[in-house]
Design brief:
The strands form two sheets. A five-stranded mixed beta sheet has the order 5-6-1-10-9, with no helix packed on it. The termini are far apart. By secondary structure, it is mainly β. It is 12% helix and 46% strand. The chain is built from one helix and ten strands, in the order αββββββββββ. The chain is elongated, with a radius of gyration of 24 Å. It has one domain: Immunoglobulin-like.
């Protein structure tokens, strides 16, 4: 009798786990990262000079990127403060657009300002309120949960 009772309890618990999704939750091991990407899209060619891109988030400076475009076709040099990354989109040796990305180990801001300077002079500055997409690569009830947004600063 006791073995039959234990078997019945085991069956009920197993059935409950399966029905609630605990035994086979359907989650995968995919990862994601919260991110913020800004495309700097210049209407004319990026002049061969020194550029600086500053990003502020929620009232505080997040970081700065330096871009040096030499006139001797040696290629661009760039460097960014943590937590920013920079990606130059080149075509035929000319810069078409610049992407500034916030690295994933930082909280994404609710408001941010991007400023672009050429040789120390402000060229453009714009404040954005990003609309983040919620990404759940492993399913709706699974972790991780990431916030991702993109914006364009055309000048």
């Amino acid at each position: 009798m006791m073995k039959k009772f234990a078997a019945t309890i085991a069956f009920i618990v197993s059935a409950a786990w399966v029905l609630t999704g605990c035994a086979f939750p359907g989650c995968t091991d995919a990862s994601c990262a919260s991110s913020l990407t800004v495309e700097l899209n210049k209407s004319s060619a990026w002049e061969e000079t020194n550029w600086q891109v500053t990003v502020k988030g929620d009232g505080s400076e997040i970081g700065t990127c330096q871009i040096e475009l030499p006139g001797d076709s040696q290629g661009a040099e760039e460097a960014c403060d943590h937590p920013l990354n920079l990606n130059l989109n080149e075509s035929g040796g000319a810069i078409e657009s610049v992407y500034v990305m916030l690295q994933p180990d930082v909280d994404v801001p609710t408001e941010y300002t991007v400023g672009v300077q050429r040789d120390g002079n402000l060229v453009v500055e714009q404040t954005f309120e990003p609309s983040y997409d919620t990404v759940r690569p492993n399913g709706p009830d699974c972790s991780p949960v990431c916030q991702q947004a993109e914006a364009e600063l055309a000048f």
